[in-house]
Write a structure and sequence with these properties.
The chain is mainly α. Helices cover 45% and strands 0% of the residues. It contains ten helices and no strands. Helix 1 packs across helix 10 and helix 8 (176-182) crosses helix 10. The model has no long low-confidence stretch (mean pLDDT 89).
Length: 246
């Protein structure tokens, strides 16, 4: 059976792709970047403890995680994924009971007549599963991957958080409103029904509007950095994407 993932894996367009592509993180993003697993890799690369561990050949604060993820700074993502996809793949849901000792928390043993038509077998299996697995059971389904995705990922948000965080690292002394501008953060420029430009055109004082827009930019930039910091920290613990607050 091909590996199964809860969320769409990166698509390098080399094999059959059975997943519906998620909303791209940004316009014209390559298919292989349209995956939470790609952003997991990106955020982990920003973790200082993990970098220290990689520089020490696996010795350091992230030694346990290193044994699974390896040195993520030595290879491109495509090569890394080729050798590490199994960390995020789900356990097989169907196994041959005669050759596997894999145990499930809840299972059903069947005997299939392999001389029957495939369409009939599938129809009867669907009917059987519908009867024995309720909607409540479906809601309780948990990932069996070694490293499950912690929460429902929104790729565009992950991308924006990381853009702002990276910009801050490159420009540590820049003011937050300027950081918002160079990171292309969009905020509402309308204050009390007017923009600063509209206020000037009507002869009104635009000072308050300008100040309020700067405050909004500051809050937005700081929020993105706080979230990115949490994602980066928890990625170093093998959890992604995970944050406590905004």
């Amino acid at each position: 059976m091909p590996p199964h993932f809860v969320y769409a894996p990166p698509d390098f367009e080399t094999d059959f792709y059975a997943y519906r592509s998620p909303v791209p993180p940004y316009p014209d993003a390559p298919r292989w970047q349209q995956s939470v697993y790609y952003y997991w890799w990106l955020y982990l690369r920003r973790n200082a403890d993990y970098r220290e561990t990689c520089l020490s050949d696996g010795k350091g604060p992230c030694a346990d995680l290193y044994r699974d993820f390896g040195n993520i700074y030595e290879v491109e993502f495509s090569s890394w994924w080729e050798n590490h996809w199994h960390l995020f793949a789900e356990r097989d849901a169907i196994v041959d009971a005669t050759v596997s000792d894999l145990q499930f928390d809840r299972s059903l043993t069947l005997r299939l007549d392999l001389t029957a038509k495939r369409s009939r077998l599938l129809e009867e299996l669907r009917h059987l599963i519908t009867n024995v697995q309720s909607e409540t059971d479906q809601a309780r389904v948990a990932s069996t991957a070694k490293y499950p995705v912690a929460t429902n990922p929104i790729l565009s948000s992950m991308h924006q958080h990381l853009v702002v965080w990276d910009m801050k690292q490159m420009n540590p002394s820049v003011a937050d409103p300027v950081l918002a501008d160079i990171s292309d953060i969009r905020v509402n420029h309308v204050v009390d029904g007017l923009t600063a430009e509209q206020a000037r055109l009507t002869g009104r004082d635009a000072t308050y509007i300008i100040s309020e827009v700067k405050r909004r930019k500051t809050q937005a930039a700081q929020r993105h950095i706080r979230i990115a910091d949490q994602y980066i920290e928890n990625a170093g613990k093998g959890i992604f994407p995970q944050r406590i607050g905004r």
